[in-house]
Amino acid sequence: MNQTTGSLWVVYALLSALFAASTSILAKIGINGVDSNLATAIRTVVVLVMAWGLVFMTGVQKQISNIGVRSWLFLVLSGIATGLSWLFYYRALQMGDASRVVPIDKSSVVISMVLAFVVLKEQLTWQSIVGGLLITAGTFVLIL
Questions:
Q1: 95-108 b/e with 16+ CB inside 10 Å = b?
Q2: What gap in Å lies between CA 17 and CA 10, rounded to an integer?
């Protein structure tokens, strides 16, 4: 990792958090009077157009033939998981308060950490354990 890209991931992660937060609020406003499955489908089309637009703008569509079977399998499974996540998220957001739905949804951070340790064999540190416990406690405080 070079000096320029070494910390650039932090900027991207912060932008991701900003847009993820905006997503929740915009979705809660937009879903009013709209079936949650229809709202998810509309959102998915927008994401699809944006993602493929970026692929063609950057010219990386040429790399499709280089993707291996294992990568295809896990990308498809990831897509299915994303779709299911969005469907359940929009249903929960339609039925509940955003201030309570969002913290529960974001408990995926802790679940992802556990899966990273178990499946990806990433290093388990005392900081990640304490951080995960604090996130979990914070989630319970916010939803009660």
A1: eeebeebbbebbbe
A2: 10
Q: What pLDDT digit, counting tens, does each position of 14-32 carry? A: 998 899 889 889 999 999 9
Phi and psi of 68, rounded to 5°?
-80, 165
What is the distance between the alpha carbons of residues 128 and 44, in angstroms, rounded to a whole number? 32
The DSSP code for 96 is S
The pTM of this model reads 0.80
- Helix locations, 59-143, DSSP H: 69-95, 98-105, 108-118, 126-143
For residue 119, the one-letter residue type is V
d(CA 123, CA 131): 14
What's the token pair of residue 140? 């319970």
